[in-house]
Each structure stands twice: as structure tokens, then as C-alpha cells.
Amino acid sequence: MDLSKKYGKIFTVNLGLKNLIILSDPKMIKEAFTKEEFSGKPSNEFYKLLGGYGIINTQGSIWKEQRRFVHSCLRYFGMTIFNKKNNHNLENRIMGEVAYLLNSLKSQKGRAIDLNHSFVISVSNVICSLLMSVRFSFNDPIFRRLMVKIEEGFILFGGIVFLNYFPFLRHFPYFLKEIKKIDENKVQTHNFFQKIIDDHRRTFSETKTRDVLDCYLMEIKRAELSGQSENLFQGKDHNSQIRQIIVDLYTAGMETTKTTLHWLMIYMLHYPEVAKSVQAELDAVVGRKRLPNFDDLPYLPITEATILEVLRKSSVVPLGNSHATMVDVQFKGYTIPKNTEIVPLIYAINNDPELWESPEKFLPSRFINAEGRVVKPDFFIPFGIGRRNCLGEFLARMEIYLFFTSILHTFDLKLPEGHSLPDLDGIFGITLTPSSYKIQLLERSFECEIKPSESLPDFLCTKRMPVGSH
What we know:
Elements: E1 10-14, E2 19-23, H1 26-33, H2 45-50, H3 60-76, H4 84-106, H5 116-132, H6 141-159, H7 173-202, H8 212-225, H9 238-270, H10 272-285, H11 301-314, E3 323-324, E4 329-331, E5 334-336, E6 341-344, H12 346-350, H13 393-410, E7 411-414, E8 427-428, E9 432-433, E10 440-443
Helix pairs in contact: 4-5, 4-13, 5-9, 6-7, 7-9, 9-10, 9-11, 9-13
């Protein structure tokens, strides 16, 4: 089977034990990924490690049920463009964490710093408030160790990707060692989240839906009352399913957003003239008396285009979200066997000279048309496309915009003396993460003092969530 002869942007590999198709044509990716037959997940090392639990690496009817349920939960808490009232609650959650971040960065007094821990904590607290109604302090040692394990896990999985296609390699000493590390990371991560789940159960109330975890606890309660407990989650252990759902949503919601914020800082260091253009636009539209808000976005084309260009250049998830065929599929006149892995090569799309003029250049202006409006081409799919597109896209876009604009509105970015510009190549794993770097943030003056709140307001919903059972 060689589709590449007729279709130049599709590559097929027969690995003896497994078929692999790599797609770099966005139209073909869209056509395939909108079909149910392509909505499976590869049966690889990662899939086996999770034992069929969660949402990211499940398939079939349980995946459909879980995605539908999680989507309902997230919509209820404002993660959709169509829920304006809850959008403001979501924005307030994010801006509460922006306030903490800005205060922390101001306390550094322009010293050379590594932003990683600050970004991890800030982004984590947003998703954790939605998932579990908890937040962590910047100095929490237990949470800091957990983040090290999670970041290490993303890199480790990238390092054992060959096991997905050559399973016999798992018996070699190097891979045995890496698999052991991954399993240890999984155990520590699950133990951390299990403690939070156990605490949540003790304070659970059927009359008050605080977060996504409460939605799941309510679902279990309904199943028990209706005598359907054994059928819930298709017979899978309830606790294991809840825990993996939380881990899936947390890691997906934290890692890519945090990494994108790093790339934004790095590209602004490389292109200070772009950073100045963004700041000038923010000053003109927002003014120097407040921080940007989400309602400002339509009036900030330079800012939005800059974010989009960084998303293109950084290709945070370079291999996209892998799919697999659920059955033998007829596609483009060829038969693709069941369980064939389909990899969307997002990095290639983002750097294709047939799609982008001078793709090697950093040009935010490519996203602005002659009328000065932001235009996103159909082939630009940083958050995926089709049935398995990113559930948290709206949250991620809002977070990236609010954190980025608040930082640039508050600080000038400077490369510390004696430091080289950060590398733009990145470290390959599940995500393409930047190498560590240092930055100086020099406070800009406001016309009046902006005092971020010392404590987060309570924006947790108290109404019972009207979602159906499985």
C-alpha cells in the first residue's frame, strides 16, 4: 500500500507488526479525522500503560460517552464561546492567577529568572480550579516535585516512541530502564491526585456542583441509585476511571499551554521589535490604567497574529494527536487495514512552503489581511481537527492570550547580560519544549497603581449541573 505515489503528502510505513500512515496534507487530515472509522487510538506502549482508562487514550463507545460527558461539564463551566455568562467566570478564574503571577514576577525586581515554575503553577491552578477546586502555592514542595515528574514523563514518552512500532525493543536494557521510570512517574502522579479525589469525596454534596470532579461523583451516585453501578464506565473500576480522567485533563490542559507561553517569551526575545509592536497596540487599545481582558481581543490584531505565528513556528505538538482505524477503511481508493496508526504531521504542515510564504521566517503579518483583520487559513490546525480535536481549545486560547498580554503590558522583556538567545529548535517529546533559559522582566509604569487581588474570588458554580447519565 503506497499512497504517496498519487498523493504526495502521505507516507506509509509497513513495520511488519504494524502499519503506520503519516499525513502532512491538512485537507486529507480533515477528511480522515472527521470520519468515525478513523477515531480509534493506537494500541501502543502508552495505551497499554493506562489500561484503557481515561479519555485521551480510549476508543469506541466508552470514548464517545466520556468525551460527550466531559464536554458537557466543560461547557457548563464556561469553556465554550457560546456561554457568555460563564465565559466571564472563566476569565475571572484566569485573571486571578494572572494577578498572582504578576505579583510574583514583580517581586523579582528585574533579576534574571527562569519562568518555568511560575508558568507551571499559574496554568496548573487554572485547570485545577475547574477540575478539583484546588490551587497550589508557588512554594509548595510536593507540587513542585510532581511537576518535575510530569515534565520528565512527557520527554520519556518521546524517547520510547520506537517501542510503538518495534515492541521487541522493550527487552533491551535502555528501554527497560525508561519504562521503569515512566511507571514510577505514573504511580507518583496517581497517588498525588488520588489524595485530592479522596478529600473531595469527603466534602461532596449532591446539591452543589463545584467542578468536573463533582460531576463525576454525581454520575456515580446516580448510577448507584438506579442500580446501574456495575454498568457505569462499561464495567471499569470507577475510581481508576475518575483518576485517569483528571490526570488526562490536567496534563493536556497544563503542558501545552505552559509550553506555548514559554515559546511566546522566547520569540519575543528573538524579535524585540514584534514585542514592542504588541505593547504599542496594547497601550493604544487597553491604555495604561488596567490590564487587558478578553473583550479587547477583537481590537488587537497585531497581538492575536503574534500569538498565532508563535503557535505555527513552535509546533508544540509536532506529531499531532495520533488516530487509528477502527475497521478496514476505503480511503482515496485504497484499503487501509484496521488498527493502522494515522499520524498528522503538524510540524510539516506549519513549515510547508506550498502553504506558507517563506515559512522559515517569523512573520505575524501573514495572519493579517489587507483590511487589517486577523485571518486564519483552514490548513492552520494547532489544536487538531475532527472528532478528537482538543477539548480544552477555548480555555487554552483564553489562557494564552490573557497571560501573554498581561505580561507584556506589565513588563519589558530583556535578555540577561552574558546570556545567549534561547534555542528555537526545542526538545522533542510528546511536546516540543524549549531548552531552559533566563529572562529579565523590567516593570513598565501605569498611569495609576494596579493592585491585583490578594485572594482569589469564589467563582465556583453552586447550581447542580444538568447533565445526563451514561
